[in-house]
Amino acid sequence: MIKHICFDLDGTLVDSRDTILKSTKAALDKLEINYNIDEDVFTNMIGKHFVDIFNEANIENVDFDEFISIYKSYYFDFIDSSVLYPGVIDTLKFLNEKQIMVSLLTTKVQEQADKIIDHFNLRASFDYVMGRRDGLAHKPSPAPLLYICNELKVDPSETLMVGDTELDIQCGKNAESKTCGVLYGYRNKEHIEKEKPDYIVSGLEELKHLLG
């Protein structure tokens, strides 16, 4: 029985591709760092740490602390380029009415995660919001999901981790939770199937059927 659903943010609840891309370019321009970003390739890397993204994109000589600081300062200049995916509001309402606990787990820093949830007026729908925190490993480590489960006093085996990337599915598996991959985010169907999640949905409202 599922008592708790933990959602990823980018590519799962929010289509933030353009906001992330615009903020990244603005920060790199500010730092006067040369880059040649293929937008489709970049989209397929969203969810990974920027260190890994820049390594794969051959963007060099980046002071990541400085980059992240500038990136965050620009992010909300472009927040109106982000939109909720279809079915998010109705699905969260359904889960709240079913008294299934709802949490968020994102690799964005805590302050940024909180601001985004508040921007979309979703705070009341969540029992816990978890961003990246110092001293705690991020996805695909199970550590942040186990932390959430502990805070909500729910067993990981009664938890469903929902996300659009390999990091989300691996995190859930590593925590010994159920996993659900979504097909509308930043990874293709083949990529998701390769991770062998317990469930795969093409739209978020399909969770209603999974949960009866």
Radius of gyration: 17 Å
The global form is: globular
Strand content: 15-25%
* Class from secondary-structure proportions: alpha/beta
Tell me what the structure shows.
With 212 residues, the protein is of the alpha/beta class. The chain has helices at residues 17-30, 39-43, 50-56, 64-75, 88-97, 110-119, 143-152, 166-174, 189-194, 207-210, and strands at residues 4-7, 14-15, 83-84, 101-109, 128-132, 159-163, 178-182, 199-201. Strand 7 (178-182), helix 9 and strand 8 (199-201) form a beta-alpha-beta unit. Helix 1 crosses helix 4. The mean pLDDT is 95.
Quick take:
By secondary structure, the chain is of the alpha/beta class. It has helices at 17-30, 39-43, 50-56, 64-75, 88-97, 110-119, 143-152, 166-174, 189-194, 207-210, and strands at 4-7, 14-15, 83-84, 101-109, 128-132, 159-163, 178-182, 199-201.
Tag the structure with descriptive keywords.
212 residues, two-stranded antiparallel ribbon, six-stranded parallel beta sheet, alpha/beta
Itemize the secondary structure elements and their pairings.
Layout: E1 4-7, E2 14-15, H1 17-30, H2 39-43, H3 50-56, H4 64-75, E3 83-84, H5 88-97, E4 101-109, H6 110-119, E5 128-132, H7 143-152, E6 159-163, H8 166-174, E7 178-182, H9 189-194, E8 199-201, H10 207-210
Helix pairs in contact: 1-4
